[in-house]
């Protein structure tokens, strides 16, 4: 018969004390992982969806070949239907897509000075894609001059509502691009005038629930677009909140 060395015997209380420590450590790691990788990202995404920082959005559009385009200067918050109804109610026409037919049509209309309220606008890119919507207002009987604005839907929302960033400019004449030599519209340098015009017009529509301004949205206050046209701004972004519009079209 053998006897056990008293030093080889593990006290029962010691095993019980060590086991809860391992369990606590495992529980702590599991809780940390759940909070860090599941709960916190979800809460952060929910907070960003409810009140995103519009100032962090992309500030400048680009051309299809990656050159700088027109600056973003207005944002509308609301559904696509409300946006379209509001713009059309103030006399803005949706621009036709660029096709061979529409390109030939705008060329002929420019030469013959015929009105073309739905003339196509060139594609600019924001958030990695071309504009989702584009509107214009012709000046006189020729598409040589026109007010126009392009809109891109943001991938975030504001209180669950879509956010549309826009670049509004005024085409003051038709000429050759300073960078490529292609026939193009040249924009007026004061892009703030077009931004303020949209704010003023939509504010009179009865379709706006509130307007606010983001100062220093543009840190750089001037530049040139893909056609070589100079633009300048005071750096502010106008943010308009849309509501369902029942006003009669202007």
Task: Give a verbal description of the structure.
The chain has helices spanning 12-50, 80-89, 100-112, 191-203; strands at 60-62, 68-71, 74-77, 93-94, 125-126, 129-130, 133-139, 142-158, 161-176, 183-187, 208-214, 222-224, 230-232, 237-242. The chain has 250 residues and is α+β, with helices and mostly antiparallel strands. The protein has 2 domains: 10-49; 55-242, no CATH class. The strands form 4 sheets. Strands 3, 4, 7, 8, 9, 10, 11 and 14 form an 8-stranded mixed sheet that branches. A two-stranded antiparallel sheet has the order 1-2. A two-stranded antiparallel sheet has the order 5-6. The longest helix is centred in the first third of the chain and has 39 residues, at 12-50. The protein is elongated.
Key phrases:
250 residues, two-stranded antiparallel sheet, alpha+beta, 32% strand, 30% helix, 2 domains
Specify the helix fraction band: 25-40%
**Estimated share of beta-strand residues:** 25-35%
Uncertain spans, ≥5 residues at pLDDT below 50?
A: none
User: Distance N terminus to C terminus?
Assistant: 109 Å
The biggest sheet, with number of strands, parallel, antiparallel or mixed sense and barrel status, is: 8 strands, mixed
Strands, helices and their partners?
Elements: H1 12-50, E1 60-62, E2 68-71, E3 74-77, H2 80-89, E4 93-94, H3 100-112, E5 125-126, E6 129-130, E7 133-139, E8 142-158, E9 161-176, E10 183-187, H4 191-203, E11 208-214, E12 222-224, E13 230-232, E14 237-242
């Amino acid at each position: 018969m053998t006897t056990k060395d008293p030093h080889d015997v593990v006290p029962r209380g010691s095993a019980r004390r060590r086991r809860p420590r391992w369990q606590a450590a495992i529980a702590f790691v599991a809780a940390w992982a759940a909070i860090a990788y599941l709960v916190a990202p979800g809460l952060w995404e929910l907070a960003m969806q409810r009140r995103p920082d519009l100032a962090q959005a992309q500030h400048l559009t680009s051309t299809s070949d990656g050159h700088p385009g027109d600056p973003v200067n207005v944002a509308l918050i609301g559904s696509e239907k409300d946006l379209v109804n509001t713009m059309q109610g103030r006399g803005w026409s949706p621009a036709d897509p660029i096709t061979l037919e529409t390109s030939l049509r705008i060329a002929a209309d420019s030469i013959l000075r015929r009105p073309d309220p739905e003339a196509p606008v060139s594609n600019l890119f924001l958030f990695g894609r071309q504009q989702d919507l584009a509107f214009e207002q012709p000046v006189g009987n020729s598409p040589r001059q026109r007010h126009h604005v392009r809109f891109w839907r943001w991938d975030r929302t504001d209180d669950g509502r879509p956010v549309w960033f826009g670049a509004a400019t005024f085409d003051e004449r038709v000429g050759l691009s300073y960078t490529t030599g292609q026939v193009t519209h040249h924009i007026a340098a004061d892009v703030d005038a077009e931004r303020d015009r949209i704010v003023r017009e939509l504010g009179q529509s009865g379709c706006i629930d509130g307007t606010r301004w983001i100062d220093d949205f543009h840190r750089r206050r001037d530049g040139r677009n893909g056609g070589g046209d100079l633009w300048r701004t005071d750096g502010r972004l106008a943010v308009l909140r849309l509501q369902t519009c029942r006003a009669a079209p202007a």
